[in-house]
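Q: Here's a chain of 377 amino acids. Please give me its 3D structure as tokens.
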Amino acid sequence: MAGIYIHIPFCKQACYYCDFHFSTSLKKKDELLQCLVKELELRKEEFENQTVETIYFGGGTPSLLSINELRLLIETVYKNFKVCNNPEITLEANPDDLSKNLIVQLSESPVNRLSIGVQSFFQRDLKLMNRAHNAEEAKACLRGATSYFENISIDLIYGIPGLSHEEWVGNIETALAFNVPHISCYALTVEPKTALDSLIKKGIIENVDDDLAQLQFEILVEKLEESGFIHYELSNFGKPNYFSKNNSAYWQGKPYLGIGPSAHSFDGNHRSWNVRNNSKYIKGIEQNILPMERETLSVTDKYNEYVMTGLRTIWGVSIKKIEEEFGENYKKYLIKQSRIYINQDLLYIEDNKLLTTKKGKFLSDGIASSLFKINLT
């Protein structure tokens, strides 16, 4: 099974924290849409032996597309690829786009999962992050969406400067009140060259506090697990049978095709990424040239990626798989490097799998990086 990711690089306005590729100008939307269609056609042979299980519209803001534009892209996938019965088709959406009319139209389309970028139910936080919607729009869209969709995910952000623990609990409880089966939560991160980075350096916005973020992460885990959610990946919580199939495929090393400017692809042995520029992307596709760079992954690259993704999930890192796919030296190295974290109650081994403890989960990326192998021959 495999997945197709389609990047829609347009937004109404720029969120201060975002470093994804997007444009606030919609002038080239029609051209770019046709190029997305053409790229799907140009790349169909890459998946001739694969069955597509998931189609994911990310961005940017995919909910800026009309229902007919979404249908065109989905129909193009079906025309050029082998698609399984009842694939998961996810649309990332902003609350201000999800009018009652659009929700109804989406419910009548092949889209069967919504990922809604709420981020916070407090107006102060939304303003600080320069979100396009307000707090009431967030609640209104969820009232509408839950009437027509069963499979909904909400995005929330913690560690926002000025966000108290009590307010964070309020955000979680508000989300839970809508009975959605999936919640994704991320610590506010200051990416270089973003507006947030600039505003913090100028002293206009307070810097993020990592200790505060960790405490709010611990509150999050406790509250959601009490409510029947499974913490299946560092940032993701799902009710049984509602894990994101798209994201789970990434973490479990399944192949995926990234369509659109800046989109990444993976086939098990190679990773490629499209140019991060709308004009250059359009020019290349119009000339039947795929505007991408490509790298072949070494054994060490594959080992490092497996350790990174595995430690973030409930599936952990299979020591048996390390030995079978990477060799005895990698297995010995992994176990040796893990001992210090096992002694600190950050990692543990169970059923021949290396996993993070509750205490170690928030630190999993940093722990994983210290288990990486460099230039092993």
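Q: Can you summarize the key feature?
A: The two ends are 32 Å apart (CA to CA).
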